[in-house]
Design a protein that fits this description.
The protein is an alpha/beta fold. It has eleven helices and four strands, in the order H-H-H-H-E-H-E-E-E-H-H-H-H-H-H. It is about 50% helix and about 5% strand. Helix 5 crosses helix 7. The longest helix has 19 residues. It is globular. The structure holds zinc ion (ZN). Zinc ion binds next to helix 7 and helix 9.
């Protein structure tokens, strides 16, 4: 009898702990197999960021890619998914958080890949298909939607300061504190949030006044500004440093990566 009481007590305590901590993050599985050679070939061929890493860093990058793919499902909707698609999604996830050793995308379960751009009803034919990617909320919580065309294009054209998948993963990083608002509290000290917001507003004003080479979509709101500026930072860091040194410095501190010294070459 005392054993039953003890067992009930343990269950009750466990339940209470779960109730008090409902957002308890599920454990991620760690890779146990070695990194597949064919994935390494894709990284070498398609991902400039990976090629610019030292051998040790490449190993760390591979591990994180492997871990990501073990823990997040990537599904095709009206399209087949290849290893290339999987690797490019995972690379987009890892590039922005590469300096954060213990980062895990607990807020992501599945990435849905559509063949082309889509509209707000997720239709891939007809007019008004302008959406290249999005981070889901409400019934799509825990999901990201990407157009395969835009995913591939982000890694093919390395000079246009655009990478849709990185853009969407930066929204997820921003969302980790609960709100997609351009203020990734998880990456910054609290006292840094207000100056960062003021600075973003100043840079958005430059976009409105037509005095900026930053993608005008960044003028939509602070969340889009942060994601658009991050795409620029990871795609054309040297150009960003030259044209927007202060913005470059902010992003270098936030992402803890000195991108401008990396040899990003085809
Ligand atoms: Zn966006």
């Amino acid at each position: 009898m005392p054993l039953i009481i003890a067992a009930i007590a343990i269950l009750l305590i466990g339940f209470l702990i779960f109730k008090m901590n409902p957002k308890k993050e599920k454990k991620w599985i760690s890779p146990s197999d070695s990194f597949p050679l064919k994935w390494k070939v894709i990284l070498n061929d398609k991902v400039m960021f990976y090629r610019a890493l030292s051998e040790d860093e490449q190993k760390r990058f591979e591990y994180k890619i492997h871990e990501f793919l073990l823990n997040c499902t990537i599904s095709g909707v009206r399209t087949e998914i290849s290893d290339l698609d999987r690797i490019l999604v995972a690379a987009s996830a890892i590039i922005p958080i590469f300096s954060f050793d213990n980062w895990k995308y607990y807020n992501l379960e599945e990435v849905l890949i559509y063949p082309t751009m889509f509209n707000d009803k997720f239709e891939t034919d007809g007019k008004d298909r302008k959406i290249m990617g999005m981070v889901g909320n409400s019934y799509l919580e825990g999901h990201m939607v990407l157009s395969k065309q835009s995913l591939i294009h982000g890694f093919e054209n390395e000079t246009d300061k655009k990478n849709t998948a990185i853009h969407e993963f930066v929204h997820l990083i921003d969302k980790k504190d609960g709100a997609i608002d351009g203020i990734p509290e998880i990456l910054m000290n609290k006292q840094y949030a207000i100056p960062w917001m003021d600075f973003m507003n100043k840079k958005m004003d430059e976009i409105y006044e037509g005095e900026s080479d930053i993608n005008p979509y960044g003028g939509t709101n602070q969340a889009e500004f942060f994601s658009v500026a991050s795409e620029y930072f990871f795609e054309r860091p040297k150009l960003l440093k030259k044209k927007h040194p202060e913005l470059y410095n902010h992003l270098e501190i936030l992402f803890r990566q000195n991108m401008s010294t990396k040899k990003l070459t085809k």
